[in-house]
Amino acid sequence: MNLNATLFAQFVVFFILAGFTMKFVWPPLMKALDERAERIANGLAAADRGKAEMAAAAKTAQTELAAARDEGQKRIADAEKRAQMIADEIKANAQAEAVRIVSQAKADADQQLAKAKEALRSQIAGLAVKGAEQILKREVNAAAHADLLSQLAVEL
Fold first, then answer.
1. Are the C-beta atoms of 124 and 153 separated by less than 8 Å?
2. pLDDT score of 16
3. pLDDT tens for residues 114-151?
4. In angstroms, rounded to a whole number, what is the distance separating the alpha carbons of residues 40 and 48?
5. HAMAP family this protein is in (predicted)?
6. What is the reported pLDDT for 45?
7. Taking the complete model, does pTM exceed 0.85, yes or no?
8. Is 137 within a domain?
9. Contacts (Cβ under 8 Å, ≥6 apart) of 145
10. CA 24, CA 31: separation in Å to the nearest integer?
């Protein structure tokens, strides 16, 4: 075999293989590489959009958290005011009840005092009649002298 013929045959085979590779193998490889590069670019763009959305969401969350904190403080202040109003109302009701109880107790005491005075008057009237009996040494009729005894009780 001739070295030139071998080189020429290898040269022809190389060009056929190169042509076959460029026509059938190279386009699908380039297409796959281009698709992969496009997917990577889309992924990076999506990651950038995600970062931007995340920053916007964090800012929105901070704003809503501050608003919720302010609302919570407002509700706490309203609850404290309401509790103070209820405590004042309870205190006023308790004072009114105490005044009512004291006035009721005074009325009861006055009534008891009046009853005791009336009982004491009737006892004094009885003692006066007995004393008069002893003085006069005769029996005084209490029914006959009821007007006199009631007048005496009023004077006492």
1. yes
2. 95
3. 899 888 878 877 777 777 766 665 555 666 666 766 77
4. 12
5. ATP_synth_b_bprime (MF_01398)
6. 95
7. no
8. no
9. 129
10. 12
Q: Which two tokens stand for residue 78?
A: 């309203």
Cα separation, 14 vs 89, whole angstroms: 106
d(CA 146, CA 148): 5
Distances from the Cα of 144 to the Cα of 55, 129, 139, 148, 150, angstroms = 112, 12, 11, 9, 12
Mean pLDDT of 88-102: 93
Alpha-carbon span 9 to 17, nearest angstrom: 12
Tell me the per-residue pLDDT of 28-51, one tens digit each, with 9 for 90 and over.
999 999 999 999 999 999 999 999
136 part of a folded domain: no
The rounded distance, in Å, linking the Cα atoms of 116 and 124 is 12
Q: How many domains does the chain fold into?
A: 1
Q: Is residue 122 one of the residues assigned to a domain?
A: no
Query: DSSP label at 10?
Result: H
Residue 146, domain member (yes or no) = no
pLDDT at 44: 94
List the domain range (segments joined by +) for residue 48.
3-110
- With beta carbons less than 8 A apart as the criterion, state whether 118 and 138 touch: no
